[in-house]
Write a structure and sequence with these properties.
It contains eight helices and seven strands. The chain has a seven-stranded parallel β-sheet with strand order 3-2-4-1-5-6-7, sandwiched between helices. The chain is an alpha/beta fold and 236 residues long. The radius of gyration is 17 Å and the shape is globular. This is ATP-dependent dethiobiotin synthetase BioD.
Length: 236
């Protein structure tokens, strides 16, 4: 059950490397600045083993935003979660189990932000479950429980190719009766070219989904105080 007024935001992307983690941190920081209790959940993190491990996304989010964080599964190789789990020889939770774990956290927070892995159809478990399934299952579970909505935010690129990738992602969400709440351009260039400038307008026009934030390229490298100070200027 959610607590009174609990919001759930699922952050997905059109691809890997589009800026989901920084967007997640910005969403969390904005809510914290408004006095909300915030938890960020990462169902599956990959690429954290070996001699040159990637940083944990939850650590980055916590550092930038000050939010509480929860990572449910960590896998060594920088691969899709199902592939990484098979190669590592470990069992990982199903999407259904992830949904249950997330719902257990809701009563203690005003906002729970769930960051996906890669794009919308990347497999989070070895049964074929994806972030699309997680968003759909959370949406319908919470609607049945108390009518609470789940907001799905799609992080996209600024440059060439983003219109196609973003339309494909929003179309897939709508196919399972989940209406995307907003688009976030994850890394806006300091000197945008004509493609990026046109895309900033065309993304909303072609998808019917508003661009709710535009995050400058390199924002994830800012000190936390500067990051948090910049967040209000990035949101529409």
């Amino acid at each position: 059950m959610t607590g009174p007024g609990t919001r759930v935001v699922v952050v997905t992307g059109t691809d890997t490397g589009v800026g989901k983690t920084v967007a997640t941190a910005a969403i969390a920081a904005r809510a914290i600045a408004a006095g909300q209790r915030v938890l960020v959940v990462k169902p599956v993190q990959t690429g954290v083993g070996g001699s040159d491990p990637d940083p944990h996304d939850t650590a980055t989010v916590g550092h930038l935003s000050g939010a509480e964080v929860l990572e449910l599964v960590a896998l060594d190789e920088p691969l899709a979660p199902d592939t990484a789990a098979r190669r590592q020889g470990v069992a990982i939770p199903t999407v259904r189990e992830h949904v249950a774990r997330i719902r257990e956290q809701l009563a203690s927070y005003d906002l729970v932000v769930v960051e996906g892995a890669g794009g919308l159809l990347v497999r989070l478990d070895t049964e074929g479950g994806t972030i699309l399934d997680l968003a759909r299952d959370l949406t319908f579970a919470l609607m049945r429980a108390d009518g609470s909505p789940v907001e799905v935010v799609v992080v996209c690129r600024a440059g060439l190719g983003t219109l196609n990738h973003t339309e494909l992602t929003t179309t897939a969400l709508r196919a399972v009766q989940v209406e995307p709440a907003g688009l976030v351009i994850g890394a806006w260039p300091a000197e945008p070219g004509v493609a990026a400038t046109c895309n900033r307008t065309d993304l909303a026009r072609l998808t019917g989904v508003p661009v709710v934030a535009v995050i400058p390229d390199g924002a994830g490298s800012l000190p936390p105080s500067e990051f948090q100070a910049g967040v209000p200027t990035w949101f529409a």
